[in-house]
Amino acid sequence: MHRTKSGLPAALKQAGLRMTPQRMAICEALSQRFDHPTAQSLYDQVKQIYPSLSLTTVYQTLDTLLKLGAITSLGSAGDDTIHFEVNTDPHINLACLTCHRICDLESSAIRELEREVQEAIGSKVLSGRVVYYSECLEHSDPRACRWNPAIAGQQAITSSPTEEE
């Protein structure tokens, strides 16, 4: 599920953390980003507003949100860095190994797969991840990658419906 701006701070309060302006800014930055940011990119963004922010605070905040299930983490997109996202609904991640961007592909097929797995194991699926890796074959310049949300002007890519839907 997509978390609202208030959802991330509420999760931190639930964990007993004091809501400092820096933590609020980290939550706000994370909830507004659809590019699956890294801890470093969140740090760079929030540090512009709060110069005293430490990278440790960013990592601790992200770690707490992960443990609470308020966000998820993804492995590398070819950049050896962990990426984070607030979309905890079942979906497909598309990772570009050229520009290291990750975007969401909303698909009804992923929900069907989750149902199939639950039936097979006879238990509720707690989490799962489907990631497809590709390269920007159309462009050698990573800034021109068609999966780059800043260029594509979209927050998530939606698959086209099949005839069965």
From TrEMBL:
Instruction: Establish whether keyword Transcription regulation is in the entry.
Output: yes
Q: What SUPFAM superfamilies is this protein classified in?
A: Winged helix' DNA-binding domain
Q: Name one GO biological process term.
A: regulation of secondary metabolite biosynthetic process
Q: Does the keyword Transcription apply?
A: yes
InterPro entries noted in UniProt? FUR, Fur_C, WH-like_DNA-bd_sf, WH_DNA-bd_sf
Coiled coil location: none
GO MF terms, alphabetically ordered: DNA-binding transcription factor activity; transcription cis-regulatory region binding; zinc ion binding
Task: Give the domain of life.
Answer: Bacteria
Q: Which Gene3D superfamilies does this one have?
A: 3.30.1490.190, Winged helix-like DNA-binding domain superfamily/Winged helix DNA-binding domain (1.10.10.10)
Quick one: which residues bind Zn(2+)? 96, 99, 136
- Stated name of the protein: Fe2+/Zn2+ uptake regulation protein
